[in-house]
Amino acid sequence: MAVVEVGWTIRAGYIGDARCTRQSSSICFHDGPMETSFPSILMAAEATGVDIIQSVWTICSLERGMNQNVEQLEYIMGNKLQCSKDDPLMLVLPEAWHERTDLVRELFRVVLEAGFTSALYCCRPSVAWTLASGRTSAVVLDVGHNQATTTAVLDGYALRNTVASSSLAGRSVTGRLIEMLDREQLESLESIKRYRVPSIRNWALDDMVNDIKRMACFVRVGHSNFL
């Protein structure tokens, strides 16, 4: 069974994998070729001279239409995971999406009608991470790019009345890091200033600082004393 977790970053693999080895960006180049590499998407958009990059896996994008979401899922299943149409799919959706049953139901209908998977299952990330840790009950803190969410899981079930979300998440940390590193100096780097379209340059800048954040930053123990 294939497993695809959607969000700011799309992670894909198979049931039983020890860790995820396939990751791709959740943005796409409108009317361009289906690409999952972030640099490829930026270069394709830069070639047109117009910023037509869109975030795919957001509530707003689902409300506008689901064709791009389904196309990206089909591309991942067929090209990245080499799955056949007889293979089932486990879709891991962000915690807050499970409260929008109308959108989730419509997404499932569109995916199944597309015909690239034989069966479709849905899972909460809090439950998946709890079971993956060898436990059945836990309190899960998920800090994503746009949202941080806490959920209590009891005996393998997420307690819906315990779900709490905050917009203070990875994007806020990235923005603060850009300020600390000096935006003007970052924009003078050759890897950033080669993009002529300002909005595409911002995409590239955010991606570079996100890489710095992932590789060089950490949560300090006893941060209150440090401050």
TrEMBL record:
Protein name per UniProt: Putative actin-like protein
| Species whose genome carries this gene | Trypanosoma cruzi
Pfam families associated with the record: Actin
Q: Where is the signal peptide?
A: none
